[in-house]
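This is your field. Have a critical look at both lines of this record:
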Amino acid sequence: MLIEKLCLRFGNTPNIVDLRNTAYCLSQLNYYEKALRMLLSLFDHIRPKLEDAEISNCFKVLLNKVLLRLHS
């Protein structure tokens, strides 16, 4: 699954530009129940990288998309 591959890059990629690009890609995907569960199960790979402002902003966009989908 694409989400799994992208999330696993957070634990394996030391290059911050690559991680920012990966976070952006994750923020552009549509999240349904299965995809959201996958994201949550792999969140430990992402959590340490959220200190970066650009990565954090991408995840804020992602969360807003998920919340809007839940309320519609």
The first helix runs from residue 2 to 12. Helices lie at 2-12, 16-28, 33-41, 43-46, 53-71. The chain has a mean pLDDT of 92. The two ends are 26 Å apart (CA to CA).
